[in-house]
Specification:
The protein is mostly helical and 188 residues long. It has 9 helices and 2 strands. The protein has a two-stranded antiparallel ribbon. The protein is elongated and about 100 Å long.
């Protein structure tokens, strides 16, 4: 009896390593079902890839669409876009650092507008992962002040208490208001 039942059971090993133990009469059925499952999985992947590829292409401008529409899979499209546009990040960091180093305040713009510009540069540095300590940012902003602000710069440099960037901006706003008031009253 044991030999008869042994002849009725067959081990089926699939290429991906899955092992089935099944009655002999159903081997063909199981192989057929696994082929159907493979086909369904491949069809689902193809449909998902089609949707993803076209979704990416839809987001591109017309000229870029013409360049990248020849990509056969979403992954190939994504890799080519990543290779092209991800490499420019190093150049962007250098550009932002250059803006930070070259930033100078001028007489033709208001001090507070220029402070906001400088804050935007600091924000861009932070976004790019180039973090500067708070004291460094404060001292850099103080050093960027106009030569007419020499006395105020010296006053800020000699303060013993460490100042945050927001505190410096508040002090600058107060100083701007004081200077405007003095100009209107004719003292300056």
């Amino acid at each position: 009896m044991a030999t008869e039942s042994a002849n009725l059971v067959t081990m089926v090993v699939q290429p991906h390593g899955t092992t089935y133990c099944c009655p002999r009469k159903n081997i063909e059925e199981i192989l057929w079902e696994s082929d159907i499952q493979k086909r369904v999985a491949i069809d689902a992947w193809g449909h998902g890839d089609f949707l993803c590829r076209n979704y990416i292409l839809n987001g591109l401008s017309d000229t870029l669409y013409n360049v990248y529409s020849s990509a056969t899979t979403a992954r190939a499209l994504w890799e080519s876009l990543k290779k092209k546009y991800k490499t420019e990040d190093a150049g962007l960091k250098k550009f932002i650092v250059g803006k930070f180093l070259e930033f100078k305040m001028v007489d033709s713009k208001t001090v507070m507008n220029q402070v906001q510009e400088f804050e935007m540069i600091l924000h861009d540095l932070h976004v790019e992962g180039l973090k500067l300590s708070e004291p460094f940012q404060v001292v850099a902003m103080i050093e960027k002040l106009l030569p007419l602000w020499k006395d105020f710069k010296n006053y800020l440099k000699h303060k013993r208490k460490e100042m945050e960037l927001e505190d410096l901006i508040v002090r600058l706003r107060i100083e701007v208001d004081n200077r405007l008031f003095e100009m209107k009253s004719g003292k300056l």
